[in-house]
Amino acid sequence: MSPSNEAAEPARELPTSTARNTLTVRDHAEVVRIATDPERFSSTVSRFLQIPNGLDGPEHRRFRVLVERYFTAEALAQFAPACRRVARDLVDALPQDRVIDAVRDIGAPYAVRAQSAWLGWPPELERKLLDWLDDKLAAVRSGDAARNAEVAERFDALTIGLLEARRASDGSRDLTDRLAHDTSAGRPLRDDEIVAILRNWTGGDLATIALCVGVILHTAATRKPVDRRMREETSDAALDACLEEILRLDDPFTSSRRVATCRTHAAGMPVEKGQFIALDWAAANRDTRVFAPVGEFAPERNAAANLVYGIGPHVCPGRPLARLELRELVRALQAAFAAMVPAGAPLRETPPLGGFRTVPIRLHRVAPAERDGA
Ligand code: HEM
Fold this sequence. Notes:
This protein is of the alpha+beta class. It has a single domain, classed as CATH 1.10.630.10. 51% of the residues lie in helices and 11% in strands. It has 16 helices and eleven strands. β5 and β6 form a beta hairpin. α4 packs across α5. The radius of gyration is 21 Å and the shape is globular. The N terminus is likely disordered.
């Protein structure tokens, strides 16, 4: 799901959550406490149906079980070869020795192609999804609720079109088809539920994966010891740990919302029922009481407290897929390019988005020193 990008949606039966009426929690311990206390801090913060992220209690658990079946080790192993192909094809077509933008030229098209391959969406949709992603990011930056709602509705219309095309199928064509015919919740899913699940999987995650790629490639280009370490790691688990540590240090999934269900306290302050809370994952991931010293890259030491994928009942179920996609891309880049160097000043994203808007880099098929005969 997306980093803070539902922040502009109006709340269901509740006043709209805005930066002004939202209490932001930044301490690691406090973020963990609230994220793991769904009784006092509800995830039902939007008037939009959000499955499973906007649900609480037994209803959340029912849909959570359904969703998790799409992210099992077996399901991911099946998708891995296709994901690898997507990564390699994209990397093979990248120019060397020319300035490219790691977010626009690698992150965004890779996010769209990998997600489309996973869901079984046709390659012809790529342009439409990329344009949609641009509009989506612009809407989040603007903080304009109407604009955000319009972009969300456009995504829903797109998914409804895809479902229409699957009406007559038997549920075996692709993953979207399987979801459309899923009865594991004890009954077939309604169209609005399927759309809500697909919106949660894709609508936000295209942006998250694109931003994660920007952060990872910026780090690889600017922190040589980290790049070297990633190239040396031969096991998937060790590379995943490096990638998650990079994302901890510069977390593009900035925050998630909750709403207090009773009079309670948060961040050392009394709060009333209905108080909106922002869990600032990015700040908690740099809390010096947990991760000192600031900026140090230490995957082993920091893994247990890393909050990149959240914590508690809503912890990211898409983590295995995100890991696979990021790992395959990094491996493909490492195999094709001996060096990646900065090629200008990167531009930071505008809050509430995290990560970078642009990361100019240059890719060298052989290390520059070798190429120059040094
Ligand atoms: C590197 C990329 C990703 C990051 C950093 C990330 C991060 C997160 C975080 C922090 C949460 C917790 C939100 C909360 O507590 O309110 C979350 C939830 C979620 N993520 Fe991800 N995510 C990523 C990729 C994905 C992917 C690829 C998918 C699926 C295709 C996905 C699906 C979900 C879903 C369904 C939830 C809601 C779970 C629930 O409410 O039970 N995520 N994600």
